[in-house]
């Protein structure tokens, strides 16, 4: 089974962008492992494309009524026109009142509404058409209504969706197609219906691949945009978005949020004595060593040079102190000469420090990092100006 899975993974990877890492393949199957930044950007893109789709349907849906009035009697035309007017109004509301918020659940709601509106219109119009006796010409025109599920299914291809998300939406369209067949079972041409249903499943498979390909490109582009090319961790360019996301989440849930500013001690001496390549290797080793010990919810960013920022959501000051103490005890790696690599760390926490916004919290952690350096390095400074503590000799906090 493992051999089969590995073979399928390699074949899937060969169909997707070459820059996609093997470790990122599971992100194509489910959104559970997506980063906050990827979710935010993907949610924004989905809602924007939903609104574009809604604009197109809002314009085209009522225009087809001109064709209907030429081939159907007035009673049937008026019923279909009413359905078209309601659907078009719903599309207009979706266009005007839905704005991207960066929240993935809002995006799910938007895309569900987008596909629910024409699906309901399809079921209602299919049922209404089945209650009228149609001439050969009007029956031929009425078959155009049967193509709506195929249009909707193909429309999924414009959204960057994981396989799990795509299957959920495709299942709703297949369910609607099945419901329409059930409602008209007495007059249904079963061979034609079965062939159409099979074609709809085939289109669902093609759109799933197209959506996953879009998602693969987005994963690659977001990774390249927000990650430091040297260490592979998040870059300073992504810091503002990450901090804003964590701050908004902490405020919404009245939760703690801790920031730790980390500066590697005497790093300039590494570059001076061993060269910049040795310095780069030290930075990479430190980043990978630290990243491996963090929780999935934590975010490690390279702030610049030998400075790093650690974002710890749902972590109060005491918990952050203990976490940093464990990291110090395990060590941050080695310098090129074999000596232990140490760091000066400034710690700040949203609730404990009564920070008004994430910028002030960041500045506070930065100032405390400099206090840790001035206090002798290889220590953490948090809360008060003189509350630095060291891994081997923790100092009790005291009032200045």
UniProtKB/TrEMBL annotation:
<feature type="transmembrane region" description="Helical">
    <location>
        <begin position="166"/>
        <end position="185"/>
    </location>
</feature>
<feature type="transmembrane region" description="Helical">
    <location>
        <begin position="77"/>
        <end position="98"/>
    </location>
</feature>
<keyword id="KW-0472">Membrane</keyword>
<dbReference type="InterPro" id="IPR000160">
    <property type="entry name" value="GGDEF_dom"/>
</dbReference>
<dbReference type="InterPro" id="IPR050469">
    <property type="entry name" value="Diguanylate_Cyclase"/>
</dbReference>
<dbReference type="InterPro" id="IPR029787">
    <property type="entry name" value="Nucleotide_cyclase"/>
</dbReference>
<dbReference type="InterPro" id="IPR043128">
    <property type="entry name" value="Rev_trsase/Diguanyl_cyclase"/>
</dbReference>
<feature type="transmembrane region" description="Helical">
    <location>
        <begin position="50"/>
        <end position="71"/>
    </location>
</feature>
<keyword id="KW-0812">Transmembrane</keyword>
<keyword id="KW-1133">Transmembrane helix</keyword>
<dbReference type="Pfam" id="PF00990">
    <property type="entry name" value="GGDEF"/>
</dbReference>
<feature type="domain" description="GGDEF">
    <location>
        <begin position="255"/>
        <end position="385"/>
    </location>
</feature>
<feature type="transmembrane region" description="Helical">
    <location>
        <begin position="110"/>
        <end position="131"/>
    </location>
</feature>
<feature type="transmembrane region" description="Helical">
    <location>
        <begin position="137"/>
        <end position="159"/>
    </location>
</feature>
<feature type="transmembrane region" description="Helical">
    <location>
        <begin position="197"/>
        <end position="222"/>
    </location>
</feature>
<protein>
    <recommendedName>
        <fullName>diguanylate cyclase</fullName>
        <ecNumber>2.7.7.65</ecNumber>
    </recommendedName>
</protein>
């Amino acid at each position: 089974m493992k051999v089969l899975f590995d073979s399928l993974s390699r074949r899937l990877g060969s169909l997707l962008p070459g820059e996609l890492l093997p470790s990122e393949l599971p992100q194509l199957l489910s959104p559970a492992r997506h980063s906050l930044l990827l979710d935010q950007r993907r949610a924004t893109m989905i809602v924007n494309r939903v609104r574009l789709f809604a604009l197109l349907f809002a314009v085209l849906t009522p225009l087809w009524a001109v064709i209907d009035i030429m081939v159907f009697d007035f009673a049937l035309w008026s019923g279909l026109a009413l359905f078209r007017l309601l659907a078009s109004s719903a599309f207009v509301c979706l266009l005007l009142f839905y704005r991207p918020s960066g929240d993935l659940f809002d995006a799910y709601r938007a895309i569900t509404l987008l596909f629910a509106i024409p699906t309901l219109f399809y079921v209602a119009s299919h049922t209404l058409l089945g209650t009228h006796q149609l001439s050969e010409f009007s029956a031929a025109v009425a078959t155009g209504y049967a193509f709506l599920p195929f249009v909707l299914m193909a429309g999924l291809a414009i959204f960057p969706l994981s396989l799990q998300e795509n299957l959920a939406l495709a299942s709703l369209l297949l369910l609607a197609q099945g419901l329409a067949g059930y409602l008209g079972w007495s007059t249904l041409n079963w061979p034609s219906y079965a062939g159409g249903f099979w074609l709809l499943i085939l289109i669902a498979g093609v759109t799933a691949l197209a959506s996953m390909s879009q998602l693969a490109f987005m994963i690659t582009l977001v990774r390249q945009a927000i990650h430091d090319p040297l260490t592979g961790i998040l870059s300073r360019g992504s810091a503002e978005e990450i901090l804003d996301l964590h701050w908004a989440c902490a405020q919404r849930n009245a939760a703690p949020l801790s920031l730790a500013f980390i500066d590697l001690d005497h790093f300039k001496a590494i570059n001076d004595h061993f060269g910049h390549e040795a310095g780069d290797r030290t930075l990479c080793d430190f980043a990978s060593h630290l990243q491996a010990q963090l929780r999935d919810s934590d975010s490690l960013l390279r702030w610049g040079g030998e400075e790093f920022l650690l974002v710890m959501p749902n972590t109060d000051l005491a918990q952050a102190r203990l976490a940093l103490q464990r990291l110090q005890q395990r060590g941050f790696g080695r310098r090129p000469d074999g000596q232990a690599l140490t760091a000066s760390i400034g710690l700040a926490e949203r609730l404990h420090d009564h920070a008004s916004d994430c910028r002030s919290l960041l500045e506070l952690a930065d100032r405390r990092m400099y206090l840790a350096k001035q206090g002798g390095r290889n220590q953490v400074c948090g809360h008060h100006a003189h509350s630095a503590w060291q891994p081997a000799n923790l100092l009790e906090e005291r009032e200045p």
